[in-house]
Amino acid sequence: MTLTTTFYDAIENRRSIYGISKEPVISDERIQEIVNHAVKYVPSAFNSQTARVVILLGDNHTKLWDITTQTLKGMVPEDQFASTQEKMDSFNAGYGTVLFFEDMSIVEGLQAQFPSYADNFPVWSLQSSGMLQYTIWTALESEGFGASLQHYNPLIDEEVKTTWNLPTSWKLLAQMPFGKPTVEPNPNKEFEPIEDRVKVLK
Amino acid sequence: MTLTTTFYDAIENRRSIYGISKEPVISDERIQEIVNHAVKYVPSAFNSQTARVVILLGDNHTKLWDITTQTLKGMVPEDQFASTQEKMDSFNAGYGTVLFFEDMSIVEGLQAQFPSYADNFPVWSLQSSGMLQYTIWTALESEGFGASLQHYNPLIDEEVKTTWNLPTSWKLLAQMPFGKPTVEPNPNKEFEPIEDRVKVLK
User: Fold this and answer.
1) Which among A131, A174, A197 has the least Cβ separation from residue B52?
2) I want to staple B118 with a disulfide (CB 3.0 to 4.6 A). Which of A25, A161, B66, B111 is the partner?
3) Of residues A67, A124, A71, the one with CA closest to residue A99
């Protein structure tokens, strides 16, 4: 896996990028390669490898945001729907979407196998998924894409599983639309004073 | 923040490293710098910046593993305690420990402010903490340390908060002992077939 971006630069440069287009940035094979790399190397509790990922490109990407738009149409008051439609259109304008799942059959298997940790496995599964979401987000942006992290789960879960015939045990946790950036991220992101967040005790 | 390790190499090289020593690898100021960098740049839902981190060095690092050892002594059967003691000693043998917390007063504030997302904020808080744990783990190992992720919470929570006078709203999620590596990671980590975990739909 070649890319000269250093680790700290990648961390620092990752932002939520909402303006994205369908213009290709890297090949579909390269997209798959960076997703595979992250899924392989990001850790999971007891090396349980609970993460599952679906990369939606082309018509499948469009289909996801059509599903989400239709779902929200049944829920958002009509006079407030314009801004929702605009948001859906902005995600649909991108090149693809990464869907993040956890295979709950594995999580439940660990709970049955190790009852004294039963409460922990779902918590660790969420933390591990966060690690993976973040790694793919940072990787996509290091490669020149813009991306953001969306959460229309659980509203769209059933239709997503039915549409793409995914196992019922896969639990949807996040959706990451990505594409060629068309706008800069907000330059005024606010940061709390670091000394309120980190303590060093020697 | 300078370090030439590329992003993908850092991802690939991060492992659980259990054999660690107290020999210094980088300065304490540099440790704090890489933790601060991660805490600043790792994202959180609604930019809520819920993560809190405590870096324990020197006697404070030793104190943490003494607390954990004493807590487990009251729970693990006496004839099985030797292996627990050995594990505690291996963490204590390291240079320091990073404690990861989430400030639940912020999470609860968001739940009150946005009731329709109330169930999501604790889930997103866990995912964001996972992102941060992973970033600091990867950074520490990129700098030459070995580290692993431990979970003696909630057993040790009360004594940790009392000992270091931490806010009651800080919820402990993970402990990361680190030090100079003294053994190689397990060379035989097993990986599930990637095609069972990632699907590409064009």
Assistant:
1) A197
2) B111
3) A67
CATH entry, A26-182, from 3.40.50.170, 3.10.180.10, 3.40.109.10, 3.40.50.300: 3.40.109.10
Strand residues in chain B grouped as ranges (E): 20-21, 51-57, 96-103, 146-147, 170-181, 198-201
- A 149-178: CB under 8 A from B: 149, 151, 164, 173-174
Quick check: A39 and B198 CB within 8 A?
yes
User: Omega into A122 within 30° of 0, i.e. cis?
Assistant: no
CA–CA distances in Å: residue B149 to residues A31, A36, A79, A124: 29, 23, 49, 11
Cα separation values, A95 from A65, A105, B23, B98, Å? 12, 31, 48, 39
A57 touching chain B per CB within 8 A: yes
The ipTM value here is 0.97
pLDDT at position B3 is 76
Query: Model confidence over B97-135: pLDDT tens digits?
Result: 999 999 999 999 999 999 999 999 999 999 999 999 999
B75 touching A (Cβ < 8 Å):
no
Note whether A139 contacts B7, CB cutoff 8 Å.
Answer: yes
A124 vs A199: CA distance, rounded Å: 24
Test B39 with A194 for CB contact under 8 angstroms: yes
CA distance A108 to chain B (A): 17
